[in-house]
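Okay, is this right?
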Amino acid sequence: MKINSTSSNPLLNGVAGGTRGDTASHAASGSAVSSRTAVDLSPAARHLAALNDGSADVRSERVQQIRDALISGELRIDPGKIADGLLASVRDLLK
């Protein structure tokens, strides 16, 4: 199976392997190319963008506390609590 680097859809050129020149040639040939400045994001894309905004950075002092507790043997791991948290995350994702 061969995968072409260009698309017959002018809206995908420049994104899926095409070049800007491909888009320009489609525009010159009469294909409809929109020059919208607004983009509608899906809820999942908005969620990913929010995760990437820097507000979810690692709290290094908390990481150090956990590391120290692990080294000293004071860290108590509750597998049931971890499993409950994972199941709750999966339920949220499936909604």
In short: The radius of gyration is 24 Å.
